[in-house]
Amino acid sequence: MVEGAVDVVAQLYRLQHQSTDGSGDGEAVATSIVLANVPETLLARLTERSVRWDALSGFLQRALLWDLGLVGTRDGRLIQVFVPCGDTMSSTFLTSDVFDATRCPLASCSNTSLQFASAACESATVHHVAQCAIAEVEQNASDISDATPTTLWSEDGDFSSVPNIRLFKHWGDEQTGAVGDGEPSQGSSQSGAVTNSISNGSSNDVLFTINQKAAMQLSADHCPLQGFFTTPCTQRHDGNAELWCPPTRGGFVDLWLDSEMAGTTIVSSNSQASAIAMSKDSTTSISGSTIALVVLFIVLAGAAGAIIAICVSCRKRDQKHITASPTIYECALTMRSRGRGDEQAHSPNAQRSPHAKLSPRNSLSESRRRRSVELAAFCADAKIASKRIAYDCLVFEKMLARGASGEVWRATFGSQVVAIKQLLPEKRQDEEIVARFAQEVRLAAALEHPNIVRFVGLSWNRVCDMCIVSEFMEQGDLSMLLNSKRNSELTWAKEKLAIALDIAEALAYLHGRQPAIIHRDLKSLNVLLDTSLRAKLSDFGLSRERSFDDTMTNGVGTLLWTAPEILRGEPYSERADVYSYAIVLSELDTCLPPFTLNEEVSERHLTTMQLMHLATSGEVSPQLRDDCPASLQHLTAACAAFEPAQRPTALEIVFTLRNISRCMRYD
């Protein structure tokens, strides 16, 4: 079976890459999809990633729908596909060995090696092995095309052009009456799959298929020029519903979203209209019903009017509540001395902060801040209050970095040079973003270690202007050193081993806390150096997908340090940091970007996303120079082990490096 048959998302990404660099055949043009309906799962995913539907490329739109298990009908209506609970959409693809050759004989095409179910295949057999299900109510849907008696299964799925994936239905075999309910039970020839217990049913039972192309009846004499997949789905009903669930996300789509959508418009968390905003000029291969779109527009317009009326009423009510909650309100509004005037223009800091003259429209509304339990608790936290710095005392000098959501400045606090991290002005109106940043401030304030960038304090004029003040690292980040002319002077016996040990000490500290803190974004860019080249870890955070720090770096670049299990969508653990540490060790050794010395990478000129596809399956690992000490080569290989459980802990890495250091001193 072609690998693409179980990796639709990867093939869509390949097509997009080919259409961009001109390496394709010119047929891969993915038009934007206009949605006929917006399932809640799609709306939730768009809102979670803070992106608009019409801002996605046609390829990414199709990849996202597939990852969510949403397949279109003839008229473009999206229908939810269910899979065995805990599986991804890749589990829907069947291999030839699951079929009973007696009840479902297979055939093949000589020109494409495509295997498929012959016309003699009984649908009851296919019901029995299907690894996806469609809601029973859809069997009578008029917009699902009847594909009886076309092929029920075909194995190939190599995309040479943009797929037109559709849902079809097939009526049962009247001759056998063998099509049943399709209730799943454990035990299948496919590892981890669900096998359906079949009970005799009527001839009206329906089998669904998901087709890459239009349904057709295949035979040895009637074969397509190119292979395509057809995967069968049984029915989900009250008797088996607990065994069928929406698919688990594969992980690769989120990475694709992050890399493509950095800096796009934020979607309101409660605005369906803005989340699915359609491009006026877009065309589609999933054509929506014109009537449905008009009705949707009318409904949304009416809802918008109602929301505006409610907001006006709430604003009036909020104004009455300002004096009723003075403590929280004053905390949210200002951190200046209460004896000063309330007008920001009169503050000396108005000339010092680069955003001191922000209008109220660019800041988080006071009423929403008062309603935020998280921000209220943050403002009332005595430990946080003890670390406050007067905003007037900070003098912003030079912007050092700017990302999609935040910026870092060189500044002075009295006679001390400091680094200041804060949200971009346009992001400060979002309550959720400000609350997340407040959590990150709280974490930074709690960490204290010689190899973690020192937290100086926090400050705000208004809560939305909140910033982290930390020590300024004169030598910049590790990547700057490795890319400088000084890199030829660096050796493992001197600078490199000391830097590696510093990073490992910081990781051991983070992982040893209760509960453990996972960095989630360890790379040379987040390792800072002081004048003596002591390394200190920075930009530690909460969830990397949702943290302020992640927006400060290039999302695509971060992938090079990401562990294979994370690329597959599995949860983070401390061992993911250890894999990232292995990549940093390779950077230290080679003074080159990750995987540069891998022959398969350099010869094929792979893009980052293509490289990460190989890393997901363990086909690539970081390579070191031939003259790298053997002990460090062994440590790097152990840290980069494909299986997380086989990687050492951060504390074990520290002990190993200390032993290596002692051995080098005595050599």
Strand content: 5-15%
Largest sheet: 5 strands, mixed
SS-based structural class?
A: alpha+beta
Work out the helix count: 22
Sum up the overall morphology in one term. globular
- Assign a percent range to the helix content: 25-40%
Mean pLDDT: 75
Q: How many strand elements? A: 20
**Count of domains:** 3
Strand order, biggest sheet?
Answer: 6-12-11-8-7
The end-to-end distance, rounded to whole angstroms, is 54 Å
- Stretches where pLDDT is under 50 for at least 5 consecutive residues are 1-5, 174-204, 263-296, 310-351, 357-371, 541-557
The radius of gyration computed from the alpha-carbon positions, rounded to a whole number of angstroms, is 29 Å
Looking at the chains present, what oligomeric state does this protein adopt? single chain
Describe the overall structure.
- By secondary structure, the protein is of the alpha+beta class.
- The protein has three domains: 3-275, no CATH class; 326-471, Phosphorylase Kinase, domain 1 (2-Layer Sandwich), CATH 3.30.200; 478-666, Transferase(Phosphotransferase), domain 1 (Orthogonal Bundle), CATH 1.10.510.10.
- Helix content is 34%, strand content 13%.
- It has 22 helices and 20 strands.
- It has a five-stranded mixed β-sheet, with helices on one face. It has a five-stranded antiparallel β-sheet with strand order 14-15-16-18-17. Strands 1-2 form a two-stranded antiparallel ribbon.
- A hairpin with a 7-residue loop joins strand 9 and strand 10.
- Helix 14 (492-512) packs antiparallel against helix 18.
- The protein is globular, with a radius of gyration of 29 Å.
- The two termini are 54 Å apart.
- 42% of the residues are buried.
